Amino acid sequence: MSLHTQYLESFLRSQFYMLRMDGPLPLPYRHYIAIMKLVKTGENNWSLPELVHAVVLLAHYHALASFVFGSGINPERDPEISNGFTLISVNNFCVCDLANDNNIENASLSGGNFGIVDSLSELEALMERMKRLQEEREDEEASQEEMSTRFEKEKKESLFVVSGDTFHSFPHSDFEDDMIITSDVSRYIEDPGFGYEDFARRGEEHLPTFRAQDYTWENHGFSLVNRLYSDIGHLLDEKFRMVYNLTYNTMATHQDVDTTMLRRALFNYVHCMFGIRYDDYDYGEVNQLLERSLKVYIKTVTCYPERTTKRMYDSYWRQFKHSEKVHVNLLLMEARMQAELLYALRAITRHLT
């Protein structure tokens, strides 16, 4: 995160406030929830402020797991090392190199993991699509009916985007050597089968949609958390806005690039996977801007972060710097947190009314 210092300051402020400052939950409860990411113990009756505090902590650490695994911070198990773990490297660079962004663009050009499209032409093609979409948007806006149809199509397709442990989503030879290592946490949990499930089953005709205009963070969620858990709403809102608007106007080796369209596509695709729709957004842009390998990476990082592998990280936007991919992970993390908060806070609002 130190590659993006403005965001890091905002992140640390909100995390410190959740864990250390005045709040409805006692300090031991906060840390237990942070470690376990579940609320199955404690008092039978929770006050609403305590519940909101717990929900914020859960959403925060669920999303943080996505960033940790997606950025290769989590060590991979290595039987040849005495302690069993080794630091993940990306294209032969260690984590210390990545933290300083050392020549990562050259490394990604020489990696050649997939060999499907030359990374330079891949970048140029992406920029050309961005330019074309911008021109089409200026010429003629899609109708509400068209945008609704495109959202439903993208939402259904997201159910069929497989996570990283399903190798047939990539060429077999690229993933046959990857091993997904999961930590043994069985001693800490009551239900080992508990985990992420798609918001709807494949094949369902009418998939549920959460219309963002009916319950937005800005107009509803923000005021609820601030009322029941003083000041956290301001800190979260600052963090969401910071990552959404963060830009250096670069794409790999290109300067003075408006990346707004790309950042919005990443953020909105995460929400789309959770069934959240923005009426004013054309989801046709998602299909144009986010290639399939990136969609697989996004679904894995946001829904099954422990399954993320180095090869998945290498597979998309191969000419982009590590700092730019970290920026992607920050967007995915905050979009995932906001999606979880929207569902939870809407349920609490309905309970109150």
Automatic annotation (TrEMBL):
<dbReference type="GO" id="GO:1990253">
    <property type="term" value="P:cellular response to leucine starvation"/>
</dbReference>
<feature type="coiled-coil region">
    <location>
        <begin position="116"/>
        <end position="150"/>
    </location>
</feature>
<dbReference type="Pfam" id="PF04636">
    <property type="entry name" value="PA26"/>
</dbReference>
<dbReference type="InterPro" id="IPR029032">
    <property type="entry name" value="AhpD-like"/>
</dbReference>
<dbReference type="InterPro" id="IPR006730">
    <property type="entry name" value="Sestrin"/>
</dbReference>
<dbReference type="GO" id="GO:0070728">
    <property type="term" value="F:L-leucine binding"/>
</dbReference>
<dbReference type="GO" id="GO:0005634">
    <property type="term" value="C:nucleus"/>
</dbReference>
<dbReference type="GO" id="GO:0071233">
    <property type="term" value="P:cellular response to L-leucine"/>
</dbReference>
<keyword id="KW-0175">Coiled coil</keyword>
<keyword id="KW-0963">Cytoplasm</keyword>
<dbReference type="GO" id="GO:0005737">
    <property type="term" value="C:cytoplasm"/>
</dbReference>
<dbReference type="GO" id="GO:0016684">
    <property type="term" value="F:oxidoreductase activity, acting on peroxide as acceptor"/>
</dbReference>
<comment type="similarity">
    <text>Belongs to the sestrin family.</text>
</comment>
<protein>
    <submittedName>
        <fullName>Sestrin 3</fullName>
    </submittedName>
</protein>
<dbReference type="GO" id="GO:1904262">
    <property type="term" value="P:negative regulation of TORC1 signaling"/>
</dbReference>
<dbReference type="GO" id="GO:1901031">
    <property type="term" value="P:regulation of response to reactive oxygen species"/>
</dbReference>
<dbReference type="GO" id="GO:0016239">
    <property type="term" value="P:positive regulation of macroautophagy"/>
</dbReference>
